[in-house]
Protein: DUF917 family protein
Organism: Dethiosulfatibacter aminovorans DSM 17477
Amino acid sequence: MKKIDKSCIKPLFLGSVYLGTGGGGKTNNAVYLLEELFSSNVSIPLISCRELENDKYYAGTGLVGSPTLLDDFLFSGHESMPSIRELAKITNSEIAGLYTLECAGINALYPLFTAALSGLPLIDGDCISTAFPELQMTTLHINNIPLSPFCLSDIRGNVTTFYEEDTFMLELKIRNHLASYSNVGFFSCGMLKGEALKRSMIPNTVTHAMEIGKVFMECTDYSDLLSRLVTVTKNSIYGAAIELFKGKILEIDDATNDNWQILKIRGIESYSSDNYRIIMKNEFIAGFKNDSISVMVPDLISLIDVDTLMPVDISELKPQMKVSVIGMPAPLPLKTPTALSIVGPSSFGYKRTYKSLEELYFDYYY
């Protein structure tokens, strides 16, 4: 059985930023506090989806709310414990392990607090494989598995439980509830047997996030970074990473009053005669090279700071920053017709038929 210890924290953090595709929430506080928590030989068992026991129950855990508040929050892990206890109580079930809904951004890290403090193992997998903004954008919902009962605790330990089986309605009620007090909540949900999770989870995403993070820690230059990324990803649940563009950020435009933004990039080096635009709404939604579609969700769009050789999220982007745009195919469970109706371009308000990276860059992938 694998374990997560202190040496895993930074690679998981860097991998989670890369897989967050611009969103998901990024906080250095969580990294520092986790390293403190794990400093005294603390470790967490990491169990594969294959190791799940069919008749035992496992719970999803994490946080939901405004990513902009995360950098000011000092996590302890105790925030989610009231919701864990309440979920076990109302389902009258013993929790055998924990899982994260999205192994990207802050929700790749926060479950480590809960697992360490509860003594429960963490499952090596998730239900999104990147960062999506809404609860229905998971493989659980895609497979008609409800997240309820959904127990949400606030920073004072008060727990509110939602029983809506319709995940769209659940999302709406939780967002309305969060807006009424702190915009951040800590949840436990999706109390499911191992048999159901084996059918619906995307496996190995925690391990894969750490492998990607190690690429950023160990690379010597940009060429080495790109080569390592391709090697790590080409035989993974995703697909080989591909450089889509390299350039210098010109500006970030607010496209509408509906939280849409457009990132404009001017090409450098072999792309010096080209331009690139990325549509953003919480995450990177679609990319265009010289006005032709280059990539779109659910395929992953990640940005790397060419000077620091580190992945960056939307909050870190600024004019004159040199970035490379990296695409990566989404796992197959996110590409079925049912899945695309939930996590495809139209689900983000971008009314266009999905074209995969494999289709757009056929010669590269085949």
The chain has two domains: 2-203, 238-365. The chain is about 30% helix and 25% strand. The longest strand covers residues 242-254. The first helix runs from residue 6 to 19.
